[in-house]
């Protein structure tokens, strides 16, 4: 549930910040009559994301055993691609996103009401669909169907509360540092999801080595202990992982984390000679 809470918090705060930028632009420019169009676009994007998550869950439940493992593997690996792209995109665009959103909304206002709704919808729907896919992939390893819903709900509610406090200037946080730390944690979560994907491919018979274990630490990490559950839920550390699962975790987690935490390089100014 911890990993799913982090996904809800991170994705939810990105959505909240996007919406607050659009709302603040309209309020400060005296166009509050257009707020209903923005909220209509946001509501449509949220409905599509929730509907997509429900269809995903319902469709997978009808699959046969082997097909289900294969689909879950594809979903896990797709989620890894999404989360990797998302954290690097946000790191690169964080300082420019507000200006770009205001520019798009200004152009949409000149076009007409439908364009305003479309800007709000498109600004939110990508994050919503990403959240649905990440939620599904991260929830695969949980035995309970309630805990993942609690985790994502708490994460999204926390994000909305933080976004409201930031919008009203009741609280100030260093968003660059926040997204850096949560991005680093999400890399570890994504490494665990990649491990899920490899395990599902092994269960589906696509990859070999389902019974070839890299190590066995069940003596020091009892599967029924609270700390084993925390590590499994957060980074998918299990007592007896296979060799391929371990290799996938390390092959993704270490290089991506190093690249993500690498300091930004500011290009040198060009001077006329």
Describe this structure in words.
The structure is a single chain. The chain has 9 helices and no strands. It has 273 residues and is mainly α. It has one domain (2-261). Helix 1 crosses helix 4 (97-111) and helix 3 packs across helix 5 (113-139). The model is unreliable at 267-273 (pLDDT under 50).
Task: Please tell me how large the radius of gyration is.
Answer: 21 Å
Estimate percent helicity.
over 70%
Q: Approximately what portion of the residues adopt beta-strand conformation?
A: under 5%
Number of helices, where a helix is a run of at least 4 consecutive DSSP H or I residues: 9
| Count of DSSP strands | 0
Overall mean pLDDT: 85
- Overall SS class: mainly alpha
Quaternary structure state of the chains depicted? single chain
Membrane topology: Multi-pass membrane protein
GO cellular component, one term: high-affinity iron permease complex
Protein name: High-affinity iron transporter
GO molecular function, one term: ferrous iron transmembrane transporter activity
């Amino acid at each position: 549930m911890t990993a799913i809470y982090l996904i809800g918090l991170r994705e939810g705060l990105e959505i909240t910040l996007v919406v607050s930028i659009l709302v603040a632009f309209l309020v400060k420019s005296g166009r509050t009559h257009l707020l209903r169009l923005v909220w209509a676009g946001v509501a449509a994007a949220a409905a599509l994301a929730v509907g997509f998550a429900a269809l995903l869950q319902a469709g997978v439940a009808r699959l046969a055993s082997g097909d289900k493992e294969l689909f879950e593997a594809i979903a896990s690996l797709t989620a890894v691609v999404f989360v990797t792209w998302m954290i690097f995109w946000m790191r690169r665009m964080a300082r420019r996103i507000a200006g770009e959103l205001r520019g798009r909304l200004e152009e949409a206002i000149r076009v007409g009401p439908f364009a305003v709704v479309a800007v709000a919808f498109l600004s939110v729907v990508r994050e919503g669909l990403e959240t649905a896919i990440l939620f599904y992939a991260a929830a695969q390893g949980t035995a309970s169907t309630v805990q993942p819903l609690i985790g994502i709900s708490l994460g999204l509610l926390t994000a909305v509360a933080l976004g409201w406090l930031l919008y009203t200037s009741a609280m100030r946080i260093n968003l660059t540092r926040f997204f850096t730390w949560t991005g680093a944690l999400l890399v570890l979560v994504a490494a665990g999801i990649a491990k899920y994907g490899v395990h599902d491919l092994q269960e589906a018979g696509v990859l070999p080595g389902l019974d070839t274990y890299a190590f066995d630490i069940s003596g020091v990490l009892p599967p029924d202990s609270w700390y084993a559950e925390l590590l499994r839920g957060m980074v998918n550390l299990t007592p007896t992982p296979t060799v391929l699962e371990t290799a996938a975790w390390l092959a993704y987690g270490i290089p991506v984390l190093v690249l993500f935490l690498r300091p930004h390089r500011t290009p040198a100014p060009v001077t006329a000679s």
